[in-house]
Specification:
About 80% of the residues lie in helices and about 0% in strands. By secondary structure, it is mainly α. The protein is globular.
Length: about 230
């Protein structure tokens, strides 16, 4: 199985999860199955990268496809949770705007030979690579999204349970678990997402000037020649 096929599977799992959440009706068991598909969609985000490194299939195009898969999954889940009334309308809007800006900058950088996460990445500073491209950063971000999506997903079947059962399970703290914890997880995930956009915007500014972009292209050509 190729990394791109894994990316396609995780996107399909995300769509399947949201479809089940939407059309399950009162079938609580189906909602829990959707949560499992949500976990699958997030966990596979690390599998495609692992396969690419292990099989020697890492390419700039593959990295862009991986990012595209991330955008689809993120926007799909956050839009669904916003429509369901679990999070604010502005959460998916901020994710969408952030993704549009950073992907536009990456697109401009790729015209000058800078793309992906390897030596030809547009990120030159050590701090930028640490915040955006390091295994810790990418792993932490994937973990936050997995916890956030699964937690919000679990709130859907809980909402469908009748009130006495919900009170018996959560007690009088139901509002705390649903609102405070849920919104807190969303806030942390959104904050980390915006933080990871800062280096891309900062390092990408040079590609909007001819001199800076030409310098970046010359640096790549020199590295290849060596």
């Amino acid at each position: 199985m190729t990394p791109n096929q894994v990316t396609a599977i995780r996107v399909g799992a995300a769509f399947a999860a949201v479809a089940i959440f939407t059309f399950a009706g009162d079938a609580v068991a189906a909602d829990f199955a959707a949560v499992l598909l949500t976990v699958m969609a997030i966990v596979l985000d690390g599998v495609d990268g692992y396969l690419a490194r292990r099989q020697g299939l890492s390419t700039p195009l593959g990295a862009q496809i991986d990012i595209l898969g991330d955008r689809v999954v993120e926007n799909l889940f956050f839009t669904f949770f916003a429509v369901s009334g679990l999070i604010s309308f502005w959460v998916p809007v901020l994710f969408f705007v952030r993704g549009t800006i950073t992907d536009f900058i990456r697109g401009v950088a790729s015209r000058w030979g800078r793309s992906g996460f390897g030596r030809q990445s547009m990120l030159e500073g050590w701090w930028a690579r640490a915040v955006v491209a390091s295994r810790f950063s990418r792993g932490a971000y994937a973990t936050l999204k997995c916890i956030c999506f699964c937690y919000l997903g679990l709130l859907i079947p809980l909402r469908r349970l009748n009130a006495p059962m919900l009170e018996a399970w959560l007690g009088r703290s139901a509002q705390f678990w649903e609102v405070t914890i849920g919104q807190g997880l969303v806030g942390v995930t959104l904050g980390f997402c915006l933080l990871r956009a800062v280096p891309v915007i900062w390092e990408g500014r040079k590609f909007f000037s001819s001199a800076g972009a030409e310098k970046a292209r010359e640096a790549i050509a020199t590295g290849v020649a060596r």
